[in-house]
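Risk register update: the risk of archive-format incompatibility is retired. Evidence:
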Amino acid sequence: MAEHSVLIVGGGPVGLAVAALLCRRPHADRWRIRLLEPRPAPQWSAEALDLRVYALSRASQHILQSAGVWHALEQRRVSPYRRMVVWEGAYGAATGQLTFDCAELAEPDLGHIIEDRLLRACLVDQLRGQANVELSFGVELATIDRQSGSIVVTTQDDQTVEAAVLIAADGSASAVRTQLELPTVSLPYGQDAVVAHVRTEKSHAQTAWQRFLRTGPVALLPLDDGRSSVVWSMPSASAEKLLHCSDAHFSAELAAATDHLLGRVTEVGDRASFPLRAVHARQYCSARAALLGDAAHTVHPLAGQGMNLGLLDAAALVAELEAAARAGEDPGDWRVLRRYERRQKGKNVKTLLTLDVLHRLFTRAGPLLAPVRATGLTLVDALPAAKRALMREALGLTGELPDAAQARW
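Archived output:
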């Protein structure tokens, strides 16, 4: 077994980003990387816009630049948004609206909407041809065996893979986390998020629109082709009905939910849904294994922070692995992986709890709560310093960041 061998389970953007970042470090040739993913390799087409999209922050953009894929993403398809409008009640009312504009920070945008399939395809393209990387798609984990100086994984097709460290980036239902018996705390919301791409009568104006409803937030995210990506949280029973209703009914319900802000909904694409819950692993690591991304934490999507947190995990873990290798430490040593956990866990818990509180605050009934919420949004909107601080936080421009998440120019 190579001393600096890494096994990544999970071929989503976070797992692929770990591999790509390791390959871009000053001494990349010291690493031997194997990645296992049960799904087939991603296939992206310019003609079809993936239903699953992410709102990526500036810190995530920097990480993808460090991984060597941002230029390829820009060359294919990215959708910047320059404003974000959040409101409760009627749009344009005297109170209850908060507007963020990138011009207030002298930034070119507030982030980018990027398709999952495109992001994975660009990362895979970056990794193919790397002599020290082996990508195995269509391969599923079977068992994990920890030995004194390594960790050994057996796959469903009886392959055996040995490595110094196992990185679990296999999602919220992580098979690695389950096998290693790492406990979690779960907060189910009894809600699903309905997602779709729609075309509207009026332009989205490169603005991310989000309205807080008593049943959950509804967001319209601007896409490059003029459509908007819908992320609509609601009770599970309501989501089930909207998944199977006619396009006309869905269009009418969505237009009403967004206060007819963009006029009529003139076109509806495919629809899907996923259950909402907050999940947090009590431990991010154990001997020779570390969790990151959704395997370690899953948050409410109301602020679109899930993938941003995962990419920051990837950058932080790579920084610790590289520092350990430079110092002559075993990268799978528990003390090395604990440094990654200490670096990320507190920040991730803070974000999870903040989003949980916001969700509960805006969906709770009460005669006094609605005016308090509306006044709060209006008050923040009237405080330029507070708005700038919130925008910088959302862009990932505050706090101690891994070097891969910092500007490269």
